[in-house]
Amino acid sequence: MSMTIAYWCLLAAALLPYLWTSLAKANGQRYDNRDPRGWQARQDNPRSKAAYAAHLNAFEAFPAFAAGVLGAQMAGVDTGWIDVLALAFIAFRVLHGVFYIAGKASLRSAVWAGGFACTVALLVLAALATI
Fold first, then answer.
1. What's the whole-model pTM score?
2. What are the residue boundaries of the structural domains of the chain, listed by start?
3. Which PANTHER family match (predicted)?
């Protein structure tokens, strides 16, 4: 594998919040672009609310993941490990959004933990590579 895979995963992770917000808008009442935050606050459709929550959580997860990928690369971690962890992170994060919207709280929490573990692993591998 090459580092290109992890870079594609960075792009995918950066775009995931926009997938979830699109679903929030599609499941809500007629979207009002003049007041997007106020519009979302007025939504009562559970899928719209959950998709918006997945959107926010995807933004929260991105910076540490990006730091992990880039830090591991800069520290000289084997690209195979970086790619595997990056692909796993994306799989976990997609499932996170799917389970959020489906109302599967336990599964959502489990895949959130998996994605978090991938990020931690990338950061730890980067730190250990510099010793």
1. 0.93
2. 3-129
3. BLR7753 PROTEIN (PTHR35371:SF1), INNER MEMBRANE PROTEIN (PTHR35371)
Task: Read off the pLDDT of residues 66-90 as tens digits, 9 standing for 90 and up.
Answer: 999 999 999 999 999 999 999 999 9
Phi-psi region of 76 (alpha: psi -120 to 50; beta: other; left: phi over 0): left
Q: What is the pLDDT of residues 95-120, one digit of tens each?
A: 999 999 999 999 999 999 999 999 99
Pick the CATH number of 3-129 from 2.40.50.100, 3.90.1150.10, 1.20.120.550, 1.10.150.130: 1.20.120.550
Taking the C-alpha atoms of residue 92 and residue 86, their distance in angstroms, rounded to an integer, is 10
Q: How far apart are CA 84 and CA 91, in angstroms?
A: 11
19-50 in b/e form (b: 16+ CB < 10 A) is bbbebbbebbeeeeeeeeeebbeebeeebbbb
- Please, what is the angle between helix 79-102 and helix 46-75, to 10°? 170
Q: Which residue do the tokens 């995931």 mark?
A: 16
DSSP label at residue 33: T
121: tokens are 């692993």
